[in-house]
Write a structure and sequence with these properties.
Elements lengths: L2 H35 L4 H28 L8 H32 L6 H11 L1 H15 L2 H5 E3 L10 E3 L3 E4 L3 H47 L6 H35 L8 H24 L1 H4 L2 H9 L1
Antiparallel strand pairs: 1-3, 2-3
Helix pairs in contact: 1-2, 1-9, 1-11, 2-3, 2-9, 3-5, 3-7, 7-8, 8-9
């Protein structure tokens, strides 16, 4: 095994070690909560769905890349390449859109009762299943190019033009136009939710800042010390900011490398750029459950695990 393959395998292994247990803990916590209370709040359902998408990203791509890098198993034939790249792209983009849905729903949650925005929040909560179905349908359709253009890596010259080298597989487009069109669609699919989620997060932070200033004024005039509500608000704000910051930084690097890949005329002999892209995008799927576990009391609190001791 070459040193490059060893480093590659260790990087994917680190993502697997962090991402698989982390997302599994989040999923189990909310499933236990569902079992205990027979229902989930809309925000909890979004986080549960997000953790499932992140688990697919890390489990399907990083785990299989680790096994292949260390030559423990290799499913990357033509069918394996099509399946892995398709599932990875679908779950990756689904993770991005669900992060936006979570930030948007939290933005609606700060609306005063009786307002139009509060009515919109209730509407979204009521039809959340249709939101999930639409996102799955949208991202599945936009990832269909992986089924058409992904192949097992071959040592010949037929795949040197308009292709992308991802180590064990090639994504080979029939023309320069199809490669650029597919690349632009993927960039747009990432940039749109990034802009919307950033806007939603800024609205939340502005609201929380104004609210904290009002509370400070009331406390200073009445001499009453602070309660626990502001602490909960600050935790919620920090969680939103952390997730959005993770998204902007990691997927910003990912999309920058992707745009560079689109400008290269011929398929690169090394998969380094593609590996870096996959690493940074998978890093979000691995680290976001850590943010959720630290910031969400329903995951790290004792009440979420009481049901586990009562039933097992």
């Amino acid at each position: 095994m070459s040193s490059e393959q060893f480093v590659r395998g260790m990087l994917y292994l680190s993502l697997t070690i962090v991402g698989v247990p982390g997302n599994t803990v989040v999923i189990l916590a909310f499933l236990l909560l569902l079992h205990q209370e027979n229902r989930l709040l809309a925000a909890d359902a979004i986080i549960l769905h997000l953790a499932c998408a992140n688990l697919l990203v890390v489990g399907v791509r990083c785990l299989l890349e680790t096994l292949a890098s260390f030559r423990l198993a290799n499913i990357f034939g033509d069918i394996g390449c099509k399946a892995v790249i398709f599932v990875y792209r679908t779950s990756r983009s689904l993770s991005i859109w669900l992060t936006f849905v979570l930030s948007a729903y939290q933005c609606l949650s700060i609306a005063p009762p009786g307002s139009r925005w509060a009515s919109a929040r209730a509407f979204v909560a009521h039809y959340l299943g249709f939101v999930f179905f639409f996102l799955w349908l949208l991202n599945t359709c936009m990832s269909s190019a992986a089924i058409l253009f992904s192949f097992h890596r071959q040592n010949n010259s037929t795949l040197t033009n308009h292709g992308i080298n991802v180590e064990f597989c090639y994504v080979h487009f029939p023309s320069k136009l199809s490669k650029q069109a597919n690349g632009a669609a993927q960039v747009g699919r990432d940039v749109v939710p990034m802009a919307l989620m950033t806007l939603a997060s800024l609205i939340i932070l502005v609201f929380l800042y104004k609210h904290s200033q009002q509370v400070k004024g009331l406390r200073s005039s009445s001499g009453v010390s602070g309660g626990g509500s502001s602490g909960a608000e600050q935790r919620a704000a920090k969680a939103v900011v952390a997730l959005v910051t993770l998204y902007v930084v990691l997927y910003g690097v990912d999309n920058g490398l992707w745009v560079y890949t689109l400008t290269v005329r011929k398929t690169m002999s090394s998969s380094l750029i593609s590996d870096l892209r996959i690493f940074f995008s998978s890093l979000y799927a691995a680290l976001s459950p850590v943010v959720i576990i630290v910031s969400n009391k329903k995951v790290n609190g004792r009440q979420a695990w009481k049901c586990c001791h009562m039933n097992f």
